[in-house]
Write a structure and sequence with these properties.
It contains 9 helices and 24 strands. It is an alpha+beta fold. The chain has a domain at 394-505: 3-layer Sandwich (Rieske Iron-sulfur Protein). The strands form 4 sheets. Strands 3, 4, 5, 6, 11, 12, 13, 14 and 15 form a 9-stranded mixed beta sheet that branches. Strands 1, 2, 7, 8, 9, 10, 16 and 17 form an 8-stranded mixed beta sheet that branches. It has a 4-stranded antiparallel beta sheet with strand order 21-22-23-24, with no helix packed on it. β18 (431-437) and β19 (440-446) form a beta hairpin. It is globular, with a radius of gyration of 22 Å. 51% of the residues are buried. The structure holds flavin-adenine dinucleotide (FAD) and FE2/S2 (inorganic) cluster (FES). FE2/S2 (inorganic) cluster (FES) binds next to loops.
Length: 505
């Protein structure tokens, strides 16, 4: 499958992990080798537990290979918003958790001697054209109340002409692939196993809990931790409380040191985010992200990449050439914080980390701090903050949840509406279209050689109709973010089974 590829894969090489070849019993089995899975596995291995990681593809194959890896204790959804919805105590705990995550990443890099371009840098929040300075004042006061007393208001940021801004000191940035490769080798050094090419098809709670791969291998474990981004152990509870968004990144080349080594993000929704990544002695890459849309609601990535460039050049006119562009998916929970804890269906000894909220580098690391404590049955102050079962009574969040439910309901209605085209002959090479045939919706893809591949267009999770993503060459589900390749093979959960081939396909 083609699609975009992030700059990280052009600037690091990853170890290949072989597939699991025999069934085994361990203390902890982790499913998924992104930042969340490897962070949990590393913590458990450090505690002396026998750990196995099962990854469908290879490490960083999911969103952790597409991130921009700003490491922040600043909340992109703002502390004053969180405080209003969940109260001051939760806001304080969130500040504490994200700060601790950056500290843990820094400590791990030191302990494992991971060369991953990590740096502590300042972060700057600046106003979008339609926002007023009151927003900065509200956020400054709320960040202070949350305990981030180092946050300050400045007239401007380095290399940035228009102020005022809020400065968040002590943030971080790193090369995600290099960091994940370091975590994986740390896990192996501590006796753990990391398997690639090992797709999990079922998870069963119990004593022991059991994980089965599509190749028929069974890993039984005292605890199973599901870190597949869109959780494959919980089919509804977390999925109805979060929405999938596609987000876009463009990278520009600049002379080394010409752009400030800091993080920038602004206040509109969707917001823009900017950082540098050192490339070599002479060059930095400037990464500019944003232009999000709800997954599968648009199919116009080229315009979005261009819009990001246009926006960035408005602030930094001397950016060099565009050298890379890619997109990825984030999961936005109703109250801005990840779901990390016991699997909500009550399956014994099954845990999950999902709902990254665009802050998955710190949320994934938080999973690595919190879940090993919960596995021991010990209390932790962050438990209620990230509890996957949590509900809301806050009117704004109830409204947002209702809006999402209506959107999902509309996608179910699509099953009886006409398709994108009525004639497969209209589908150009390298493109996909949904076709209605009688009562069925067909996901039809024409490959580069002109051959048509037809699968059911009904998502195998909860049966919404998938849509074609031309840029990533995938069938994406607008409801909860499952994704399938042009041949119908699942590439992102919550779906665990492929789109069935139709008789014609
Ligand atoms: C463009 C972009 C920019 C972002 N910028 C930031 C940022 O600046 N800061 C920040 O904190 N966050 C950011 N995020 C979010 C963050 O990168 C993600 O939330 C985070 O990487 C998710 O990590 P994860 O481990 O939960 O999931 P993933 O990295 O997606 O890992 C899940 C893994 O599970 C595997 N898997 C799935 N199903 C199965 C199965 N059935 N069996 C076995 N394995 C399976 C997948 O192959 C994958 O490797 C960004 C995201 C994107 C897309
Ligand atoms: S991801 Fe839930 S219905 Fe498709």
């Amino acid at each position: 499958m083609s699609g975009t590829r992030s700059i990280w894969f052009d600037t690091a090489s990853l170890p290949k992990h072989r597939a699991i070849a025999k069934s085994t019993h361990v203390d902890v089995c982790v499913v998924g080798a992104g930042i969340a899975g490897l962070s949990v596995a590393y913590s458990c291995a450090r505690e002396g537990k026998r750990v196995t990681v099962l990854e469908r593809d290879q490490i960083a194959a999911g969103e952790s290979g597409r991130t921009t890896a700003h490491l922040v204790n600043a909340l992109d959804d703002h502390y004053f918003v969180l405080e209003k919805s969940r109260g001051l105590e939760m806001s304080r705990l969130a500040a504490q958790a994200h700060s601790a995550a950056i500290d843990v990443i820094e400590q791990t890099i030191r302990d494992e001697q991971i060369q991953c371009d990590f740096a502590r840098v300042d972060g700057y929040l600046f106003l979008g054209a339609d926002d007023t300075q009151q927003l900065l004042s509200d956020e400054l006061a709320a960040a202070h109340r949350a305990g981030l007393i180092g946050v300050s208001r400045k007239q401007s940021a380095p290399g940035f002409a228009s102020g005022p801004v809020l400065r968040f000191p002590g943030q971080g940035r790193l090369h995600p692939l290099k960091y994940l490769a370091g975590l994986a080798s740390g896990i192996e050094r501590l006796g753990g196993r990391v398997y690639g090419g090992s797709r999990v098809e079922s998870i069963e709670g119990g004593t022991p809990a059991k994980v089965k791969t599509t190749s028929g291998m069974v890993v039984s474990a005292h605890d199973v931790v599901v870190c597949t981004n869109g959780a494959i152990s919980d089919m509804t509870t977390t999925h109805v409380k979060q929405a999938p968004y596609r987000t876009f990144v463009v990278a520009f080349e600049m002379k080394r040191g010409a752009f400030p080594d800091a993080l920038f993000w602004d206040t509109p929704d969707p917001y823009h985010y900017v950082r540098i990544q050192p490339l070599d002695r002479a060059r930095d890459a400037i990464l500019v992200g944003g232009a999000d849309h709800k997954t599968a609601h648009e199919n116009d990535a080229t315009d979005r990449f261009d819009a990001l460039e246009f926006w960035a050049r408005g602030y930094w006119p001397n950016l060099g050439n565009r050298i890379s562009q890619w997109s990825g998916q984030v999961l936005e929970p109703f109250d801005y914080l990840a779901f990390i804890g016991a699997n909500p269906d009550g399956a014994e000894h099954v845990w999950l980390a999902t709902g990254d909220s665009g802050m998955g580098m710190t949320h994934g690391t938080i999973a690595g701090i919190l879940l090993p404590v919960l596995m021991e049955g010990a209390p932790h102050p962050w438990t209620p903050l990230f509890d996957p079962k949590r509900l809301t009574t806050h009117p704004a969040e109830l409204k947002a949840l209702a809006r999402e439910s209506i959107d999902v309901a509309l996608h179910y209605a699509e099953r009886v509406l006409p398709g994108d085209t009525s004639d497969a002959a209209d589908i150009p090479r390298g493109e996909g279209r949904v076709i209605r045939r009688g009562m069925h919706k067909i996901a039809a893809y024409r490959d580069a050689r002109g051959r048509l591949h037809e699968h059911s267009a009904v998502c195998t999770h909860l049966k919404c109709v998938v849509r074609w993503n031309s840029t990533e060459q995938s069938w994406d589900c607008p409801c909860h973010g499952s994704r399938f390749d042009p041949q119908g093979k699942v590439i992102a959960g919550p779906a665990t089974t492929d789109l069935p081939q139709t008789a014609e396909g």
